[in-house]
Amino acid sequence: MRFLFILLILFVASDSYAENICGFVHISKESNDGIIINFKGMHRIKVNHNVNGWAVSKSGKWFVVYGLPIHIERQFPQTTYLSVYKNIKEPKIMKTQSFGGGIFEVKFDNKEKNIFVSEQRGIYKMNTNTLKIKNIGINVDLESEIYSGACN
């Protein structure tokens, strides 16, 4: 009986993001500044910038939406925004970050501890615990196996 109780506690306390959701989640662009997420229910999300792309971590714990600003400023014409959300089941905005150049792609590492953003000035790494970001240079191969934590 004690063994079953311990198993129950371990099951409840385990990471609820362990499954690979890639075959079950569908995201589509609803408007220039909105997306629809279809995964265990439908969610409409309106962002404060245009939607040019998105990426979802394999567990669904994190997803990002990126795009140009709604109103382009003459002094910063290439600014692109990245909005970071937690929990695709019940989306919650965690951070919006601006980048000086266009975003080419976004990847997650296998453990989903970092988000990698490729833009014209290099690769940026955002820690998912602190949401702090730093430039890690241009000599990073995002096609490497360790950056395969996103649904493609």
Automatic annotation (TrEMBL):
Residues 1-18 form the signal peptide. Keywords: Signal. InterPro entries: N2O_reductase_N (IPR011045). This is Uncharacterized protein.
